[in-house]
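Fold it.
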Amino acid sequence: MKLFSDRLRHIRTLRGLSQAELARAAKLSQSAISNYENGSRRDSRALFELAAILKVNAVWLAQGIGPVDAPEDQPLDTLRPAAGVVSEQSMWPFHTVTPSDYWALTPAARTTIEDAVSSLVRSLSKKNQHR
């Protein structure tokens, strides 16, 4: 399964949930789940909630990387790479901000955060190069 939509549909049916049941559990509309599953909506802001409800590894659900099942000792609101898998996008970098809090923000607020973090990273990278 190469696509998020296919993985979501597969694991939802494997867990015996209807689109409506998954939507209620994730506090989404049934049409949102339908849109994720038919590929018309690709970016799931509710990725972590869906992964937690479906008891799957969020990295697997998002990217198809690593094991399907979430490790039992792994917090559900963090992304950790599967053993031996290293990907810049496979780790949630913030310890004091949960992914669900971040994704609950408006797109404009998320852009502001991204711009601020990007600026800080560039600034700190330059300082480290001069040492």
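The two ends are 46 Å apart (CA to CA).
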